[in-house]
Amino acid sequence: MSTVVAQSLHVFGLRSHVSNNVFFFDEQIIMFPSGNHCVKYNVDQKWQKFIPGSDKSQGTLALAISPNRRYLAVSETVQDKPVITIYELSAIPCRKRKILNNFDFPVQKFICMAFSPDSKYLLTQTSPPESNLVYWLWEKQKVMAIVRIDTQNNAVFQVSFNPQDNTQICITGNGMFKLLRFAEGTLKQTNFQRGEPQNYLAHTWVSDDKIIAGTDTGRLFLFESGDQRWETSIVVKEPTSETKNLGVIQESESLIEFPAVTSPVPSYEQVMMTSSHSQLSLPQVFAIAAYSKGFACSAGPGRVLLFEKMEDKEFYRESREIRIPVDPQSNDPSQSDKQDVLCMCFSPSEETLIASTSKNQLYSITMSLTEISKGEPAHFEYLMYPLHSASITGLDTCIRKPLIATCSVDRSVRIWNYESNSLELFKEYQEEAYTISLHPSGHYIVVGFADKLRIMNLLIDDIRSFKEYSVRGCKECSFSNGGHLFAAVNGNVIHIFSTTSLENISNLKGHTGKIRSVAWNTDDSKLISCGTDGAVYEWSLSTGKRETECVLKSCSYNCVTISPDGKIIFAVGSDQTLKEIADSSVIREMSAFDVTYTAVVISHSGRMMFVGTSVGTIRAMKYPLPLQKEFNEYQAHAGPVTKMSLTFDDQFLLSVAEDGCLFTWKVFDKDGRGIKREREVGFAEEVLVTKTDMEEKAQVMLELKTRVEELKMENEYQLRLKDMNYSEKIKELTDKFLQEMESLKTKNQVLKTEKEKQDVLHRERMDDLLDKQSRELQDLECCNNQKLLLEYEKYQELQLKSQRMQEEYEKQLRDNDETKSQALEELTEFYEAKLQEKTTLLEEAQEDVRQQLREFEETKKQIEEDEDREIQDIKTKYEKKLRDEKESNLRLKGETGIMRKKFSSLQKEIEERTNDIELLKGEQVKLQGVIKSLEKDIMGLKREIQERDETIQDKEKRIYDLKKKNQELEKFKFVLDYKIKELKKQIEPRENEIKVMKEQIQEMEAELERFHKQNTQLELNITELWQKLRATDQEMRRERQKEWDLEALVKRFKTDLHNCVAYIQEPRQLKEKVRALFEKYVQRADMVEIAGLNSDLQQEYARQREHLERNLATLKKKVVKESELHRTDYVRIMQENVSLIKEINELRRELKFTRSQVYDLEAALKLTKKIRPEVSETVSSEDLPSVPPTMRLNVQEETGRIIEMQRLEIQRLRDQIQEQEQVPGFHPLAGMQLPCPQWRRFKGPDQVTPSGETSPASPEGVPCACPGLTLGCNPDHTSLSPRPWGIWDTGRIKVLAHKHVQLSA
Q: What residues are paired with 346 via a beta bridge?
């Protein structure tokens, strides 16, 4: 694999012809298809995440998201085979959960899909001619059921599940509306389609059994259990002004409330093909989306209608209209609102509505805005920015700014910012733009149109042409790297122009076919071109002639580029190879492996190469090119790549294609770090502005400032006047109200007195009435008891009568049974005779029936067909009537029962009320007098109210005037808010730059840390190597000394041998000399052998030494670890000792306190004189009590025992310290020293010296005898700081040994 890696950062584009092409993942994140990816886009934070398509994918056809938002199903075509990939969205990053690619049924592609409510099942619809509907258990890749929906090759646009039922399915298409139910492994149709077939484009479930569907003729149908219940038609009214209004007509029976369900979208191309026969004036309902208040539906080009439920009635009406706004940057603004809305979806909270259109645009609107603008139609806003709606033909970038320039077949030129991922400028023209080039400064562009070649300025808010050339159909143009020249292609001629003089410098002729691509070398001295004629030419601009040429007529070249050093040319074409050309010959060809390369680009560093293919993928490879198939291939576009470019710093790769999408890629090396080039100067922030625009804006600013100042003065003056008026009126009103309050208080007191009098009278009357009521109750009880006795006697008589009647009826029943049995026997005989006669008649009739059956069967078929339709119509009518009658019967029964209860209760109430009325009549007469007096007061108060109303009206008029002025101020505030937003938008790029710089700083810090670690490791290695070097040097010196010794010995031997040779004529002397040589040198030869042996020993010694050094190093590490462990133990012991010191100090305080108490008690007993002189003695007198002397003896014995134990422990610890100090690598703790050998301290009546002797107490501390200030002593040598050394437990008392041992008696 290649070491060059590209990571997708951002995409500018949308594929609107994918079914169900936009939906919400959550409240902030939407998902939509772009290129060959599915994009997750955060609306608030503006980031994008990508779900790439499958390898070798030919494009996405349909999307579906599960109701629980956990799974995403993507329908693709991979190598001409359909594939469904299901992704798990909850995983980070998104991963493939299942791939459905093995099918037992014929299928070309899957055009629409839907998940079940529990997300376990998946519904897929294949394209004609198969038109199979497949019901999947997708987790197990199992087909539960399959059925053929249509046999006439009609298009199916949408399939969906019932939102509450996994087994019920709805399918809509051209001439079909079908409801199916899954049962026993099959899908069966449950509805019968009646009436004229419609071309249903979209539908949505509104409840368990209700569906609303839209057609290509602007009609909306509501189906309940498959039967049509409601219909309305949306028509485009003929406009009286420039805009068109939509109305709703033909409302019928009833409407149902619609819940919020988003609607998937059919393929726009299929719909346009099937609906080409329909009238142009009729709006087509491509999308329906329901929400809690009603539903929204697309109503023709550029319009969406909202329907809401009326409060007092059970039907819906059109509430408001939402339009796609007119684009001021467009050449024909009326065309912007002529795009069809293909898909809509509401956010989970129903705050926003998002719509995608046939021109690859995404729009959004907040629902609260639609509620505000009830009178006028609301308008959509771009969700991100205007996108290209057709194939992108041109691409370029500059050096001084982070800008990208693109042009498209949609007649638009757009300038993008790849740092802020935003659209800077865009403009539409009358002609198609074929090619574009951006000046390195980022201030100018050259655009080749169908009629002319134009040079344009990039202003702050406009793209304005300032020079035109009569170069028709320019398909390729390019600025030089220095920006002083630009080349424009016209057919097979290359025109070279100067950007300073704007004149044609030279024309390069030589190609016989159309030129497809041109490229400049780094110093702009040469130009490389390639064309359809199979020629690659290298032109010299100084002479205007060809320098090198390479012609291969069998290949039609698509793109050409040149290496940074200008030596090698790279070209790609129709022969599926990448060619390296140098010196007019093809050096090397690299196969493209069954695809055609359409674009090629090499980095400015010369280390990376990127190639675009005809299937939309991008291949990244390292330069020099590998011998084998070593490259990284990335899924990018859904069409052939048209152009590619790298930014000047080799950080970002840009690619465009025929699918209308622009991708930005981050380029990495194998380690994941960006290939960074040093950038001395940052991006330029200058913007071109014309002088007239500046003057106009300055003049407008001055006018607005003067206007604001005038308004301020007017408002301040009017506010002062109003304050004066209001203060005067407030004073007048306060005076009036105070007077009225006093008068009302007096009236209130009078009324209170009258009320008290009436209360007394009322109580007296109530007592009288209660007495009367008790008497009447007693009389009624007596009467009712007599009536009850009479009724009981009547009841007994009736019971006797009923018993007699029962006996009579039983007798009659018996008689009837006897007569019935006789009559049955007679009838059986009579009917048996008749049966025989009828059987004969039947046989004859059967023969006639057989003859007439054929006639009846033919007529029967015709009649049944007619009758079925009539029966169903009658059935629906009578079912409605039955329901209405049943409901009315139930209602009437309930009402009658209620009325009976009410009637009985009302009778009782009437009797009670008659009594109350008589009482109240008397009271009424008295109260009428009071009312007349109160009416006079009311008349007076009404007059006062009228006067106050008049004053209130005056105030309201003034408030209205103030509100008007407040509205004007709010408008001014809105303008200021808009300016603030623009300023914030300008601040955001800076914040992004700061974030990027912070990330770079963090990376640099991480690298610094890594380098520090490496340096420390290298230093250790260097020290080891130095030690080895020193050892080898010593060995070298020894070997050299040995060599010198041997050479000297050999020389001496040679001289002696030479002397021996002189005696060669004399054998005896020769023999003696040889013997002397032997005696002299044989022993030294043995030494040489021993030296040879010593060299072996030295090698063994070196080996043993290395082994011991390793062991020593490991031991040192262990010792260091153990010392660290010992330090922790010592720190723990010190902490424990400190706590114990505190406890000892507390015990000492308690001891002092107890001693003082003892002294007090002894003084009380008049024994202090006898005890005090005996404190230092060991034996007490006989006159004292026995307890104190024994206590004193015990204390002395314990102190002696403690001193001995402490001495032994101190000696043991000193021995341990000496042993540990002898261990190599061990260092004692800092600050730990042996205690001062000479010390004294006052503590209590007696004190102990280091020798164990006790000395009498003195009022002051005895100075330390140690020379100078030691670690255990304070500067005054009288007090000692506690230094923990060890702990001993002697039964009840914990004794602490410090560096300076402190004890008290």
A: 353
Q: How many CA atoms lie within 13 A of 1261 on its CB side?
A: 16
Is the bond leading into 117 cis (omega within 30 degrees of zero)? no
Q: Which tokens sit at 1040?
A: 């050299």
Q: In what order do the strands lie in the sheet with 246-249?
A: 200-205, 210-215, 219-224, 227-236, 246-249
Comparing CA positions, the residue from 332, 527, 292 lying closest to residue 431 is 332
Q: Which residues fall within 8 angstroms of residue 1204, CB to CB, at 6 or more apart?
A: 1252
Whether residue 1035 lies inside any domain: the answer is: no
- Residues 1049 and 81: their CA atoms lie apart, in Å, by 93
**Taking a C-beta distance cutoff of 8 angstroms, is the pair 156, 149 a contact?**
yes
The pLDDT value recorded for residue 71 is 93
Among residues 394, 393, 405, 491, the alpha carbon closest in space to that of 441 is found at 405
* Same structural domain, 306 and 371: yes
Q: How high is the mean pLDDT in each 10-residue block of the chain (1305 residues)? A: 83 92 92 93 92 87 92 91 91 86 89 92 90 91 89 86 91 90 89 84 88 90 86 67 37 34 45 46 87 87 85 76 82 72 92 92 87 76 90 94 94 93 91 93 93 92 90 92 93 92 91 93 92 92 89 91 92 92 89 90 89 92 81 90 92 93 88 54 82 89 93 92 91 91 90 89 88 86 85 85 84 84 83 84 83 81 82 86 86 85 84 85 84 86 88 88 88 88 84 87 88 88 89 90 90 87 84 85 59 72 86 87 83 86 88 86 65 42 38 60 81 81 51 40 40 42 40 41 39 38 36
- 3-state secondary structure (DSSP) of residue 903: helix
Q: Which of 392, 204, 230, 385 is nearest to 298 (CA)?
A: 204
Does residue 294 share a domain with residue 216?
yes
Verify that 365 and 499 share a domain, yes or no. no
Please name the residues in contact with 407: beta carbons below 8 A apart, sequence gap of 6 or more.
392, 393, 394, 413, 414, 433, 434, 435, 436, 447
Q: What is the secondary structure of 335-399 as a DSSP string?
A: GTT---EEEEEE-TTS-EEEEEETTS-EEEEEHHHHHH--SS-EE-EESS-----S-EEEEEE-S
Burial class (CB in 10 A: 0-12, 13-18, 19+), 1203: buried
pLDDT at 1166: 60
Spatial separation of the C-alpha atoms in residues 169 and 162, rounded to whole Å: 6
Cβ atoms 60, 68 nearer than 8 A: no
Supply the pLDDT for residue 1259: 38
User: Six-digit token pair at 1001?
Assistant: 């700083």
Q: Which of 509, 532, 558 is the last residue of a domain?
A: 509
Residues 403 and 486 placed together within one structural domain of the fold: yes
What stretches of 1069-1115 adopt beta strand conformation (E)? none
Q: How far apart are CA 1302 and CA 407, in angstroms?
A: 95
A 10 A CB-CB count for 849 gives 11
Count up the domains in the chain and report the number.
2
From the list 934, 999, 397, 948, the residue with the least C-alpha distance to 644 is 397
Dig out the tokens for 617 from the structure: 């993928």
Do residue 505 and residue 474 come from a single domain? yes
How far is the CA of 275 from the CAs of 78, 244, 284, 339, in angstroms?
Answer: 30, 22, 9, 16
State the pLDDT at residue 679. Answer: 57
Whether residues 436 and 346 share a domain: the answer is no
- Cβ-in-10-Å burial (0-12, 13-18, 19+) of 1110 comes to exposed
Adjacency order of strands within the sheet including 23-24: 23-24, 29-34, 37-42, 48-52
**What pLDDT score was predicted for residue 670?**
72
Range(s) of the domain holding residue 227: 191-235+281-387
Give the model's pLDDT for residue 1086: 55
Say if residue 416 is in the same domain as residue 493.
yes
CATH number of domain containing 360: 2.130.10.10
First and final C-alpha spacing in the chain: 87
Residue 464 falls inside a structural domain: yes
